[in-house]
Design a protein that fits this description.
- The strands form five sheets. A four-stranded antiparallel sheet has the order 1-18-17-16, with no helix packed on it. Strands 2-3-4-5 form a four-stranded antiparallel sheet, with no helix packed on it. A four-stranded antiparallel sheet has the order 6-7-8-9, with no helix packed on it.
- The protein is built from no helices and 18 strands.
- A hairpin with a 2-residue loop joins strand 4 and strand 5.
- It is mostly beta strands.
- The chain has a domain of 64 residues.
- It comes from Pocillopora damicornis (Cauliflower coral).
- This is WD repeat-containing protein 54 beta-propeller domain-containing protein.
Length: 228
Amino acid sequence: MFSRDPSVSIKASASSLCNNLTVLSSKEKQSLTYGVVHKAFVCITTVTKGTVVNQKQVSCKGEGAHSSSAVLQAKWCELPDRTVLVITSVKGAQMFETDGSIMIFWQALGESKEGVYSHFARGISAVGDKYICVGTSEGGIMVFDIPPRGTAVKLQETLTSHKTAIFSEDSSVRVWKLSADSSPTMEMVFQQVIADTQLCGARFTDLSGDSFGVTGYDLAEIIMFSKK
């Protein structure tokens, strides 16, 4: 169903993090932009018609002007009126314009509770027409109200969620087909092992589901697959 295509080179290797790949598709520019976390940076690579045309790094700034925080996830959130690049770290959540050039919002996590060893934000999703949700290590979900333009982002509320992590890790790529019937079913339609690679991210390049990319820990490329 899928076969391997030429890989996309990135500026630095992928960190060993869950969901370490985000993709933004632009039909107008006929381009695909990939984002991969490497330590305190998000490596952004833009590909147009199969050729890498631009590479840059976006850093997640800490409390000081020259300090950086370890990044745990990056994702483009596409809303009807705006697309925002969200970066989460051990300090909190930051939001940028689509290309990462301008930071529009910064939400600090504050001090961790006594006895809490790990304190971070991770888990990003666009919800509805104007909301972006970000999870925290304390089990909360921060809900942000995103304006169509400008920097007037508002923390609407913080919801309480589960506190148990869910995780799986191996070297296999699997594609599942979900039915939309009254009795939903799942069917595995593709599987391939990426030898000697600790996979850490996978994402379809667009809503058609015709191609997807996979990242691996310490791998300075995005492994691509497409339907043939």
